[in-house]
Amino acid sequence: MEQHNGTEVTEFILLGFAGQHKSWLFRYVFFPVFLVICVTSMVGNSGMILLIKTDSRLQTPMYFFLQHLAFVDLCYTSAITPKMLQNFIVENKSISFKGCVMQLLVYAAFVTSDCHLLAAMAVDRSVAICNPLHYPIIMSRRACIRLVAGSYVMGSINASVHTGFTFSLVGINVLLLVVFVGFNLLSTVSVIILSYVNIIAAILKMSSTAGRKKSFSTCASHLTAVTIFYGTVSYMYLESHSNNSQENMKAASVLYGIVIPTLNPLIYSLRNKEVKEALKVTWKKFFWIWTQIVKTHNKNVLP
Q1: Whole-structure pTM value
Q2: Boundaries of each G-protein coupled receptors family 1 profile domain copy (predicted)?
C-alpha cells in the first residue's frame, strides 16, 4: 500500500492500553496473568479436541461441533495472543505490514467461523429436542460436515473481504465492512434465537418435569457460551458508536479474543455430565499408564 507521497507503509505502531509503555504493572503483573490465560486456553481447547477424538461415547453431532469450536477458539487466540504478550515486555511495540494483514486475516476468519459454529450447534440442539426420532437422519454425518465446512467458508469469505477493505484507502470501505459484519452477526443470531424459540416451545409441551430438566441441561452449556460471546460482541459494537473511552473497547476486545476461548472448555466440561465422565475415564487410563511406567522403571533400576 502506497500513500500519496510515494512512501510505502512497512509497519504499524501498536498503542496498547494507556500507560502500557511505561507502567511496571503491565510488565510484571498483566504479562504473567495473560500468559497463564493463554496457556490455559491452549491446553483446555487442545485437551477438549483430544478427548472428543479418543472417547467413543463422544462421537455424536453435538461433540463433533464442539470439537471444531475448540479448534476455532485455539486458532484465533493463537493469532493475536503471542504478539500481545510480546508487547508487554519489549520496547519496540510495532508489527510489520504483512504481519498485521495476516493476523487480521486469520483472526477474522476464525472468529466468523466461531459465530457460524455456535449457530450450527443451536440447530443441532433444536433438532435433538424438537425432533428426537428423526435426529439421526437430519443430523447425519454428511449434514454435520456440510455445516462445519460452511462455517469455515463463511469465515474465509468474511475475513478476505474484511482484510482487503481494511487495508485500502477508499471511502466506501466502512459501509461494506458494516454490511458484511452485520450480515454474519444478524444471520447467526437469528438462527440461534429461532432455534431456542423452538426448543423452549418443545420443552414447555413436555409433561414430565424430569424430561424438561434433562432437555434444558443439554442446552445449558451452549446457551452460556452464546450469551458470553454475543454479549461481549454486542458491547463492542455498541460502544464503538458512543463517546466513552477507547480503553473500554480494548478491555472488551481482550475479553472477546482471549478470555472467552479459555472459558469455553470449562463451560462444556463443568456443565456436561458426559464430558466429565469421559475426563474421569481418561484420567484413570493416564494414571494407570503412568503407574505402569514407574513400575517398569523401578524394576530396571533396582539391582
Answers
A1: 0.84
A2: 44-268
| Structural domain count, the chain | 1
Q: Which CATH number does the domain housing residue 128 bear?
A: 1.20.1070.10
In a domain? residue 243? yes
284: its cell numbers: 484413570
Q: Is residue 280 in a domain?
A: no
In the block, residue with C-alpha cell 440461534: 192
Chain Cα centroid distance, residue 110 = 8
Query: Of all helices (H) and strands (E), which one includes residue 34?
Result: helix 31-54
pLDDT single digits (tens) 86-131: 877 777 777 888 888 888 889 889 989 999 999 999 999 999 998 9
Strand partners, 94: 13
Element (H, E) at 33: helix 31-54
Whether the CB-CB separation of 76 and 114 falls below 8 Å is answered with: yes
